[in-house]
């Protein structure tokens, strides 16, 4: 087994609520920290939004800052700024998707919670 200090390392970040306040732009302090950290280890991010929204938050140089990018909860994957793979949850699950969504919506509708929004 490889000793821990010899294993490859990766710094993986979430976008909303970690690198930025939810749906806001990144601060200069955090961006500077990322650029400094990039000199020591590869960087990656994952987030639920599409790449365009994440570029609005992090900046147009997003794919230059991060070595690996996983927008849309990992359904899209970039390595070194190049699109490696892209898939659709609907395409992958087919007819099961509609059944699952219907079940979730029914379940939520039946929850007895204080305030439904």
Fold and architecture overview:
The protein has a 5-stranded mixed sheet, with no helix packed on it. The chain is globular. It is built from 5 helices and 5 strands. Helices cover 37% and strands 17% of the residues. By secondary structure, it is α/β, with parallel strands linked by helices.
Q: Summarize the biggest pleated sheet.
A: 5 strands, mixed
What is the averaged pLDDT score?
89
What percentage of the residues does DSSP assign to strands (E)? 15-25%
Q: Span between N and C termini?
A: 51 Å
What kind of oligomer do you see?
Answer: single chain
Topology (elements, then pairings):
Elements: E1 11-14, H1 28-37, E2 43-46, H2 51-58, H3 62-65, E3 68-70, E4 76-79, E5 82-86, H4 89-93, H5 95-110
């Amino acid at each position: 087994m490889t000793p821990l200090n010899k294993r490859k390392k990766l710094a993986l970040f979430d976008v909303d609520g970690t690198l930025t306040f939810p749906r806001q732009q990144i601060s200069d302090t955090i961006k500077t920290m990322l650029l400094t950290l990039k000199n020591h280890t590869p960087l990656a991010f994952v987030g639920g939004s599409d790449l365009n929204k994440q570029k609005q938050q992090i900046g147009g140089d997003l794919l230059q800052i991060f070595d690996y990018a996983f927008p849309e909860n990992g359904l899209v994957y970039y390595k070194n700024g190049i699109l490696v793979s892209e898939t659709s949850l609907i395409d992958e699950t087919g007819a099961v998707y509609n059944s699952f969504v219907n079940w979730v919506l029914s379940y939520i509708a039946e929850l007895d919670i204080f305030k439904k929004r």
